[in-house]
Amino acid sequence: MSCEWTNQFNPFNSIKALAWRERLEAFWGGAHFAPVTLNLELTNRCQQDCPWCFTAPFRKACPVDISFGHVNSEAVDWWVKWGVKGVVLCGGGEPQLHKDFPQILTTLVHSPLKLGVVTGCSWSMSRTLLPDWIGVSIDAGQESTWKNLGKHGKLETLLNSYKRFREGNSNLPLTYKFLAWVPPGDPKLGNIMDIPDAAKLAKEHGFNCIHIRPAYGTGEIRVWDELIAQAREEETETFKVYAPTHKVSLASGSSHRRFSRCLATPLLLNVCADSGLYFCQDHRGEWPYLLANLTTCGGWQRFITEVWGSTAHLERLLGVEPSSCSRCTFNAYNEVFERLPDMTPEFV
């Protein structure tokens, strides 16, 4: 197995969840602690058609934008008072397609919250109005692969836009995101052979790092070590290659299952384009995982004071049977918190 990274203290290492151990233990003990992060999906509309997109059924069945009233300055004030630490504008769909994206971004940039944006297109906003980091979903290292994956526009155009962007924003963390995918039964149509080229392009166009990981549902990836080793030849002090495999099996594209309860789920709340608040990011758009809908529950104040952390909320979490889930993004977090007592954390 190849090394996932040369520096283990990085944003993609799941041990970072231990920073919030006391908050999570207090939540399960009945204290009213907010999630650390809100995943805010502004829209279900997307200009791309990636073959591995597990939210495609939800997006296509519900092609809507979240109401601005649910994410305006008043909502942000509630998040801050509640104790949320960060917000990620992500998909679902492409966040920059929301008509109120400029105003939403402005409010969040000027709030105390840390802000990240995951996008699949060029940055459309002023270079003076920026989040704390940007991740760009690219998933290719060649123009032909970009096209085969159902991406729109040209890869070269997108990369050049970020090269120009970087010239005026030398300090902003910028990540080239690459989901490695092999279609089951037809590896020639996948993108994994692009990994070395993608690392080179990321470095040449001013990205700080490339984040490569297996896509859920991928077919078997047999040449991972070799490809990651080639990509890592591009590493310098200022450009890093991160290739985590601790969440997804290279042999089957499935999640590792080494836990029995979803203990880490309250670290994150998913705010979706349908105004639904879902407690599991892998089941967005699915009714059994819906805690409330902002349109019908009375808004953020009522959700925070009456729904989050309630007995019904905890019962819903404990009622999940992990073995029945097709995927689990939080599998490593759940394993850490379930096994933590075995490590006798009371002693250093």
Description:
With 348 residues, the chain is α/β, with parallel strands linked by helices. The protein has a single domain, classed as pyruvate-formate lyase- activating enzyme (Alpha-Beta Horseshoe). 29% of the residues lie in helices and 13% in strands. It is built from twelve helices and ten strands. The chain has helices spanning 21-28, 56-61, 73-82, 101-109, 143-148, 155-168, 195-204, 224-232, 294-297, 300-307, 311-318, 331-339, and strands at residues 37-40, 86-89, 114-119, 133-137, 174-180, 209-214, 240-242, 268-271, 276-278, 290-293. Strands 7-6-5-4-3-2-1-8-9-10 form a ten-stranded mixed β-sheet. It is globular. The protein starts with 20 loop residues before the first helix and ends in a 9-residue tail after the last helix. The relative contact order is 0.15. The mean pLDDT is 93.
Query: How many beta-strand elements?
Result: 10
Envelope shape: globular
Mean pLDDT: 93
Strand content: 5-15%
What is Rg? 20 Å
What structural category characterises the helix and strand content? alpha/beta
Which strand order do you get reading across the main beta sheet? Answer: 7-6-5-4-3-2-1-8-9-10
Output the helix-strand order: HEHHEHEEHHEHEHEEEEHHHH
Span of the ends, CA to CA: 30 Å
What are the low-pLDDT stretches, counting only 5+ consecutive residues below 50? none
Number of separate helices: 12
CATH homologous superfamily label: tm_1862 like domain
* CATH fold field value: pyruvate-formate lyase- activating enzyme
Number of domains: 1
CATH class type: Alpha Beta
The CATH architecture name reads Alpha-Beta Horseshoe
Helical fraction: 25-40%
Major beta sheet summary: 10 strands, mixed
